[in-house]
Amino acid sequence: MTSLEEMPETFRGRATYEMLLSVHAKIRRDLERVELLAERALQGLPAEEIYREVNELRRDSMLWRLQVGCLHYCRFVHMHHGAEDHQFFPELRETNPDLNPVIDRLEGDHRRVSDDLDAVEASAMNLTDDESEDTRQAVVESLRGLGENLLEHLDYEELSLRSTVLRLGVGSSP
Question: Which residues contact 139 (CB under 8 A, 6 or more apart)?
């Protein structure tokens, strides 16, 4: 029997992998911008400048066009991971059962990142009532934790799933 790695890549697999990389690149880019803005807010960036930069993010960022704020970024990542857990990962498990331990880890990462996203949302909401340095610091720390875990997760997912994703649909009927 031919191993999955010996099978040719498919058009669908290549398109799916490129879409995954594209979404991950946008998540990385916007996370960097949000973290930088949070750092500057902690350093005392005036509120009017924060609002101006948030509006710039809204104009420039795919993830921020719908609405502004860390809360919406968090919801996007939740949605992306939910789609992977319920639609993408089951197909990968069926295509390549050897990936089960990898997918188990990725699903665990999703739960950890979900907790991180909840922490970001809570700390961002606290800024509504309290703009103190401690509250600003809590936002920065929650974003740093999210960033570390999310970036590690994205790297692992891209590396671990590449071979199988590129071959999605091999051997299935048209």
Answer: 38, 41, 42, 70, 120, 123, 124, 126, 127
Question: Token pair for residue 36?
Answer: 């930088």
Helix or strand or coil: residue 38? Answer: helix
Concatenate the DSSP letters of all residues of 45-97 into one string: --HHHHHHHHHHHHHH-GGGSSS-SHHHHHHHHHHHHHHIIIIIHHHHHHH-G
* Residue corresponding to tokens 């993830």: 63
Q: Specify the length of the chain in residues.
A: 174
**Tokens at residue 159, please?**
């590396």
| R_g over Cα of the chain | 19
Report the C-alpha gap between 124 and 118 in whole angstroms: 10
- Give pLDDT tens digits for 47-106: 667 656 665 665 655 433 333 455 566 677 767 777 787 788 888 888 889 999 999 998
pLDDT in tens, 114-156: 888 788 778 777 776 777 888 878 878 888 888 899 899 999 9
Q: Which domains does the chain possess?
A: 9-165 (1.20.120.520)
